[in-house]
Amino acid sequence: MKASQFLFATLKETPSDADIVSSQLMVRAGLIRKIASGLYIWLPMGLRVLQKVERIVREEMQNVGAQEVLMPMTQPAELWQTTGRFDDYGPELLRFKDRHDRDFVLGPTHEEVITNLAQGELRSYKQLPITFFQIQGKFRDEIRPRFGVMRAREFTMKDAYSFHVDQVSLAKTYHDMYEAYTRIFTRLGLDFRAVQADTGSIGGFASHEFHVLADSGEDDIAFSDSSDYAANVELAESISFNMAERQPPKQEREDVLTEGMTTCKMVAEHLDIPLANTVKTLIVHGHKEDGTPQLIAVVLRGDHQLNTIKAEKIEEANVPLTLASDEELKAAGLHKGYIGVDLDMPVFVDRSAATLSDFVTGANKVNKHTIGMNWARDASITRIVDVRNVQEGDPSPDGKGTLKIKRGIEVGHIFQLGDKYSQAMNATVSGEDGKPVTMMMGCYGIGVSRIIAAAIEQNNDENGIMWPQTPTVEDSIAPFEVAIIPMKSKEETVMQTATALYEELKAQGVNVLLDDRNERPGVKFADLELIGIPHRIVVSDRNLAEGKFEYVNRRESEKQMLSREEVIAKVCRK
Amino acid sequence: MKASQFLFATLKETPSDADIVSSQLMVRAGLIRKIASGLYIWLPMGLRVLQKVERIVREEMQNVGAQEVLMPMTQPAELWQTTGRFDDYGPELLRFKDRHDRDFVLGPTHEEVITNLAQGELRSYKQLPITFFQIQGKFRDEIRPRFGVMRAREFTMKDAYSFHVDQVSLAKTYHDMYEAYTRIFTRLGLDFRAVQADTGSIGGFASHEFHVLADSGEDDIAFSDSSDYAANVELAESISFNMAERQPPKQEREDVLTEGMTTCKMVAEHLDIPLANTVKTLIVHGHKEDGTPQLIAVVLRGDHQLNTIKAEKIEEANVPLTLASDEELKAAGLHKGYIGVDLDMPVFVDRSAATLSDFVTGANKVNKHTIGMNWARDASITRIVDVRNVQEGDPSPDGKGTLKIKRGIEVGHIFQLGDKYSQAMNATVSGEDGKPVTMMMGCYGIGVSRIIAAAIEQNNDENGIMWPQTPTVEDSIAPFEVAIIPMKSKEETVMQTATALYEELKAQGVNVLLDDRNERPGVKFADLELIGIPHRIVVSDRNLAEGKFEYVNRRESEKQMLSREEVIAKVCRK
C-alpha cells in the first residue's frame, strides 16, 4: 500500500473524551472515530487490524470443526419471550417495535436464535456434537459506554454455540474450545490467563474467562507464577494451611489497655507486633438451622480482606451479607473495635486465622485488647472457612508456586450452559434409544474488537502503540508490518530504490507500506510510531552511497545501518 | 470438507411461504432459514456463497483504490436530522430510542455517517478524490418483506462513497466504479445490463442501475440486441422517427359509424386495419404559461402505451399526470371513446403517431370515428413529444440494433450525488486557491445477499440450483465446486480411492466436498443437485475395476466415464 493512497487520520492532540490509553491511541492513530457515545467507525487503518484478528479467530474456530453461520442482528421478541429473557435481561437489551408494532430486539447475544435453529434442524443424536459460530456486530445498550471500543454499544464479537447429546460430549467440546482460545490468544501474542469463572463445584458446569493482563483491567486476577492456575481474586481459593503449623501456646492470655485503638493496624503498631499476628472479628447477620435469626462472627487475620462472595457461602450466613448495626452489637454486649473471638455465637474462622497462636484480639471490653490468645485453650471455633481474598505471595491453590495479582481485561468467555435454553425452547433430538433427549449446550464468546484495545493496553509507550509480538509474522495484527520512508523523495535514486524494495517485500507477501506522503520526515516518523508499525526502513541518499538502509524496530530505539539483504531478513523475521 | 462434518439442511418440501424460485431453492438447499418476516439466518452452506461474493466485490473495490471501513449499523438521529432525512425517509427507516431516550436509526444506508466522517477528516483538495466502502448488514423496515433475501429487512450490502473537489473528478471515479461493477458481475458469471437510471439530461448527474436479467425481476429493462444500450422501460427513449417517413395524404377524411366501439382495438378490428394505423387521444389536466388551468391532449398510436414519467415532462402538463373526468370531457364537448385529434386545446403528439398518414381517430361525435385523417391537412400539432413506452423490436436509441425487453433484478446502483449531503453537512475542503470548496459526492451500492438470489433466479432447473458459470473457477460462488461420492463407503478400496482423490483436489486448491454421509446414493444425488454442486464424481467398485470414475456435470445430464487424470482436468477446468 502506498501511504498517499491511504487515509492517515492521525491526531497530535489526545481527544478529551478518550478515557484510557488504548482508546486515546486508537483515536490518535486513526484506527477509529467516535460518532456517538459507544458508537465507532473503524477507519481503513483500524479495520485492517480488526480483519487480521477476525482471520485468526475464524481459523481456530474452523480448526475445531465449528461451522460458520450469520444470524441477523435484529431478532423477534417472541424468541426472547420463550426463554424469559425479554423481561429478565435488563435495559442493556435494546427493544424496539417495527412499523407493524411488533416487538424486536437488537441482539446482544444469540442463544435464542441458535437454539431455535437447532430445534428446527437437528433431529438425531447422530448429528451431534455440532458447533456453530459467527463473527458479527452486536449491540448492548450500555448505561455508560466508555473505554473506547472496550465497552462500546456496537461491537464485533465471535459467538459460538455447541449442541450435545450429553454432558460428556459437552465437556469434550468445551475442552477443545479452551484449547482453541488458548491458541488464538497465543497466536495474537497476548499475555493472557484462562481464569476459572465460577467456583467449579463438582457436578456443576464449568466456565472460564480469558483475560488479557493490563493495568486498566476491570477485574483482579490471581495467578500462579509457576503454573497455569488463574482465578478471579473474588473466587481464588486461599489454600488450607496445614493445621500442624499451629504452634502450642507459649504466652498467657492477658488484657492490655488499647485506648481508642479500634483497628488491628493501630493495635499492632502500639504493641510492635506484625499485623499478621492480630485478628479481626466481623459480626454479621445469620440464622440457625431452623431459620431463627442470630448473629454470627467471622474472624480474619488483621492483614487480610474479607471476600464477601466466599463468606456468603457459609450456610449460617444471610445472603446478601450484612454487618450487624451498632445497636445490635450493643444489645449483644459487644463493643465496636474491641470485639474478641471468645463469643456467645457461632464463630467462623478463616483458614489463615485458624493457624495462629499467641495472637492478639479484642477483649470484649471497651479500650482493651487481649494478647496471648490461643484457639482451643481460650476460645472455640465453630468451623474453619475460606473467607478472605488471596494476596500476592500466597501459595497457589494448585500447589505450584506463589500467587501474583494483576488486573485483567476479559476478552473471551467459555461456558457450559447445560440445558437452560434447549429446555425452554424444547430443542430435543432422538437419542440412541429413539427417545427424545434435550440437548446440552455450550457457548463461547470472544470480544473481537475488544481484543484490539486490550492488545494496546498491554503494548504501548509514550510514542504510541506497539503491536504484540506474535509467534509468527503472518499472525501480526499491525495494520502494516513494515514502513519504507524515502527521504527527499524527489531524488530519483532514492525513490527508485525505495519503490524497488517495496515491490520486493510485497512480492514476498510482506504487509508493507511505502510512505510516499508529501510530509516532513519528522511527521512521518511520529505517525508511524503512533500507529506502531513494527519495522521502519529509511532510504536516503547518504546511506545509499554506502549501500546501506537505516532500520529501526518499534520496540528498540537504536538505529541500525543494514545492507539490503540484512534489512529484508529483519522484516521477514528470517 | 467432509459432508459428515457439515450441516446439510436440505428439505424435500417447498416451504409454503417461499414465493419465488430462488427463495424456495435457497431454503430447500439449506442456504438460509427464516426466523421472522424478512429476517434470515445464513446457514453454513449459504454463508460460503455469501463470503465468495463478498470476496469478489471486495477485490474489485480495492482494485479501484476504494478503502474499506466499517460503520456502525446504529446511527444517531442527529445526523439524519441535519440532512432532513430523519423526517423525510418514510417508515422503511427504523427509528428507535436508546435507554436514555435519545433517537437513533438502524442504518438502511450510510450517507450521513460517511459525510460526517469526511467533514471531520478531510481538510485539503490534495486528499481528494477518496473513496470509502464497507460490506455490512443493513436494515430496511419493508412494509411487506418478500422474495426471500431479495427483499429482506436485514441484508448484506456493499456501499461505497466517493468525495471530490469537482464534477470532473466525480465523473472519473463514477466511470471507474462503472467498470468495477461491470467486472464484478462479469466475474460472477451473471447475465446483466447496466441500465441508465435517469434520463441523462445534459449537466445533470448520472445514475446507472445494474440489473440481472431474470423473469422474476421487478423492473422491465429494454436493451439493444447489438450494443451495450440498456434502460428501464420507463426511461428508455423512443427514438425520433424521420418525419420524411410521413406519407402525403391519399384518402379523404370521412366519418364512419363505430357504434359502441370505444377502443382502438375494437375499431381496428371492425375496419380490418392494423392497430398501428389508429391513434388514441388522452385528455389530461394542464395549465397555460401563466398557470391558468386548461385541458391538454396527448395523442399516441393505438398500439402504444403511455409512459407517465415521460408525459409529465411536457411543460404544459400537471404533475402528477391526471386524466380529465367524464364531467370535464362533457363540459369540453368531448365524448369518451370517440375523441379525435382536431381539438380546441394544445395537442401533444407522440413521435410515432406524428409520422402517420391516413390514420383513424375518434370523430368527436358519439359512435363515430374518422378515417383518412392526416396531420397538417386535418389537424394541427402543438408539439411532437416522446411519451410512449418503448416496445420489443423498436430501434435502439443508440442507433445500434433493435430493442429487447426483459425483466431485471436490480443488484447494483451507482449514483452521482453531487453536493446534496456535503452541502447539508458543511463538508468542505480547502481548494487549490485556499478557499473552502464543498465536496462533490458519489455513492455506489451492491446488494451482496441479493446477488445470490438473482444468480439463482437466472440459473436453476427442476432439480434445483445451478450456479452461474464464472469465467474462472476461482470465482465460482458454488458452496462447493466438486462433490465426491463413495458408493458403498464401507468397502475399503472405494473409501480409500475417494479419500485420496479428495485430498489431492484439496491440495490443488479445489473447493471439494467428500460426501461421506450415511445416506443412500439417491438422497445424496438429489441433495447435491438441489445445492447445485457443479461437478459430481462417483467412486464405485465396478468402475474402479476399469480404472474409471463416473463424472456428471450439473448442467449436463449424461454421465461420463473418465480416468483419474481426465476427471481432475475436468474439475480444475484445465
Helix fraction bin of chain A: 25-40%
Q: Mind describing the biggest β-sheet of chain A? A: 9 strands, mixed
Provide the low-confidence segments of chain A as ranges: 199-204
Query: Overall mean pLDDT score of chain A?
Result: 93
Cα-based radius of gyration of chain A, to the nearest Å: 30 Å
Oligomer: homodimer
Return the structural class of chain A: alpha+beta
Secondary structure tally: strands of chain A? 30
**Given the structure, what is the number of helices of chain A?**
16
Shape of chain A: globular
- Pair of chains with the largest interface and how many residues each contributes: A-B, 50 and 50 residues
Straight-line distance between termini of chain A: 22 Å
Describe the structure.
Two copies of one chain form a homodimer. The first copy, chain A, is globular, with a radius of gyration of 30 Å. In chain A, strands 3, 7, 8, 9, 10, 11, 12, 20 and 23 form a nine-stranded mixed β-sheet that branches. Chain A is of the alpha+beta class. Chains A and B meet through β1, β2, α2, β3 and β4 of A and β1, β2, α2, β3 and β4 of B. Chains A, B: This is Proline--tRNA ligase. Chains A, B: Homodimer. Chains A, B: It holds the Pfam family tRNA_edit. Chains A, B: It catalyses: tRNA(Pro) + L-proline + ATP = L-prolyl-tRNA(Pro) + AMP + diphosphate.
Which structural traits does this protein have?
574 residues, 5-stranded mixed sheet, globular, 9-stranded mixed sheet, homodimer, 26% helix, alpha+beta
Task: Write a brief caption for the model.
The structure is a homodimer of 574-residue chains. Helices cover 26% and strands 28% of the residues of chain A. By secondary structure, chain A is an alpha+beta fold.
